[in-house]
Write a sequence for this structure.
């Protein structure tokens, strides 16, 4: 029995020693793994975790740069930065957010849009971060909140800069406006310039020269605790302010141009034909950029965007209209340069035009016709028959080739975002865009600037400047230092000077001739204007039909146009006036043009 007991104890010792050996081996392996891991973290990953530790202690806070100023040609400030106050809330300090918002509502009348925007921002932010409730407070609201500050825990009134436009609506489409940056703009933008609460240019010069105006963000290095709450500012790198810009725009002429349009919808573009510098760029109706810069709520912005008069639409560079008879001096010049007409020869206009073997009749705007007219009188009296015949002689592709050389059918390259190109039709254009063949009758309509032909007011002003310059094109621009920018079309230096002279003379006859369509505006001037009236149909009518505009809805009245430059001897202004549904170019658009020309020349003599 004692032998068996001894054997059992020996067996137990063997089992225990085996188990202890396995346990020791496992412990050794675990210890080795721990040592290896500690070594890896402490040595190999030292730089990484040191950086992470530093990030836990120091937070970088961006500082918005001061946006550059915008001035007109005389140095008058068109866009500036003004101090303002915003209302912010730190959620963790507000004991009951719903009660707090209700109390603030009774004090400063919060909108539903402000409440909704605040609640969405609160969901994305940490509880100790400031969240804006209202971006711009009135002086009365600041006073009320200051007096009642003890009642509102977690509420702060913060100073900041807001964009301000001293002239309000005047020049709004040219200058543009800023608004809070959206997510798409933030993704596309330079991270050195923007943060999620930054403002960015939305239209006009503010948008086109955004990179120069915006500047670069600064940064504060803020010491924080483990929860991310700020403790102190360690150091500060100041932001780089944006660049100030000076424009060619004259804000006083801009004001006169907009006032001259009155209640009409339309556009005026006036530029210096020598340089292409834009003197005035008006689009009516306009909008108040200050309201947009301070932040319209969603409903107010939707109402503005859906307004039937389209106040946000820049008609000067985006509105496309049939140019009507504005094209006639160009077509006559091209016909003479191409040898299709002799400027001294006349045709007889009886008020009707027919193509061979075609039953349709094209009528002149003057039913009884103009009698015998040559190059000069065809422009002065705006004889349609002369241009029906000339267009037929050209053919659409040859006509297209010539008119594109004057800038029709292309953009001007103006330094504004969103410019639209015009349309100068051809066989190929119609085939690609409409999938249809070209018909000869469409060429006849093209000869008087109707049919498929479309142009923007800035294109009309720029092409008119080309006549003033005897074939030298310019690129229209708003930035004062952009004079050297090349035009988008080539000079027409192959046309002899005598033909440029007779073209200018024909346009002078429009204003100063005894039978000119705009002779009424030439009275009492001590200088000469070269111009051309245009009246473009909005709706088509049959060949034997007539309509009385007084019986038509205003939307269907003809567009009124006038393009001109002055003084003829040494042009200092070229312009185009477009009045939507304004009726006759001679009675509506031409007097507006005279008012703008007179205002400019009276200040630059």
């Amino acid at each position: 029995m004692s032998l068996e007991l001894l054997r059992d104890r020996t067996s137990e010792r063997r089992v225990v020693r085996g188990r202890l050996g396995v346990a020791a081996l496992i412990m050794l392996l675990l210890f080795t793994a721990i040592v290896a891991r500690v070594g890896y973290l402490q040595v190999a990953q030292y730089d990484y975790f040191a950086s992470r530790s530093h990030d836990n202690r120091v937070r970088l806070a961006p500082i918005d740069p001061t946006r550059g100023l915008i001035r007109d040609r005389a140095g008058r400030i068109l866009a500036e930065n003004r101090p303002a106050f915003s209302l912010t809330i730190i959620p963790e300090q507000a004991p009951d957010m719903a009660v707090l918002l209700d109390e603030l509502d009774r004090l400063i009348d919060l909108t539903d849009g402000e409440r909704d925007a605040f609640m969405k921002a609160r969901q994305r932010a940490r509880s100790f971060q400031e969240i804006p409730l209202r971006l711009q407070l009135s002086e009365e609201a600041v006073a009320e909140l200051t007096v009642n500050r003890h009642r509102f825990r977690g509420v702060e009134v913060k100073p900041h800069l807001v964009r301000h436009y001293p002239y309000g609506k005047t020049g709004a489409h040219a200058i543009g406006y800023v608004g809070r940056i959206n997510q798409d703009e933030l993704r596309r933008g330079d991270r050195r310039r923007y943060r999620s609460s930054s403002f960015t240019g939305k239209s006009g010069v503010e948008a086109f020269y955004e990179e120069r105006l915006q500047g670069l963000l600064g940064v504060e290095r803020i010491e924080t605790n483990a929860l991310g709450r700020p403790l102190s500012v360690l150091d500060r790198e100041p932001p780089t302010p944006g660049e100030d810009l000076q424009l060619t725009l004259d804000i006083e002429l801009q004001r006169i141009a907009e006032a001259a349009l009155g209640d009409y919808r339309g556009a005026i573009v006036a530029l210096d034909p020598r340089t292409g510098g834009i003197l005035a760029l008006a689009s009516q109706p306009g909008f108040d950029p200050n309201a947009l810069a301070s932040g319209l709520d969603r409903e107010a912005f939707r109402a503005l965007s859906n307004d039937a008069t389209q106040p946000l639409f820049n008609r000067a560079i985006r509105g496309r209209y049939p140019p009507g008879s504005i094209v006639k001096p160009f077509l006559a010049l091209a016909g003479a340069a191409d040898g299709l007409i002799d400027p001294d020869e006349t045709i007889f206009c009886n008020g009707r035009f027919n193509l061979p073997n075609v039953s349709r009749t094209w009528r002149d705007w003057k039913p009884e016709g103009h009698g015998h007219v040559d190059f000069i009188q065809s422009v002065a009296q705006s004889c349609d028959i002369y241009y029906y015949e000339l267009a037929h002689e050209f053919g659409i592709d040859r006509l297209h080739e010539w008119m594109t050389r004057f800038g029709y059918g292309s953009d001007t390259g103006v330094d504004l975002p969103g410019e639209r190109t015009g349309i100068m039709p051809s066989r190929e254009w119609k085939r690609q865009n409409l999938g249809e063949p070209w018909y000869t009758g469409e060429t006849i309509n093209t000869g008087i600037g109707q049919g498929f032909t479309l142009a923007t007011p800035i294109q009309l002003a720029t092409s008119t400047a080309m006549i003033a310059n005897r074939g030298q094109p310019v690129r229209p621009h708003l930035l004062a230092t952009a004079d050297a920018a090349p035009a988008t079309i080539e000079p027409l230096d192959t046309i002899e000077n005598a033909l440029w002279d007779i073209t200018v003379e024909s346009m002078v006859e429009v204003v100063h001739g005894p039978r000119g369509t705009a002779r009424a505006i030439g009275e009492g001037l001590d200088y000469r204007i070269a111009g051309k009236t245009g009246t473009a149909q909005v709706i088509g009518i049959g060949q034997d039909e007539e309509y009385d505009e007084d019986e038509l809805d205003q939307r269907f009245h003809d567009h009124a146009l006038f393009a001109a430059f002055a003084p003829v001897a040494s042009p200092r202004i070229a312009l185009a006036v477009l009045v939507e549904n304004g009726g006759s170019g001679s009675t509506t658009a031409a007097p507006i043009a005279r008012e703008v020309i007179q205002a400019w020349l009276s200040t630059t003599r």
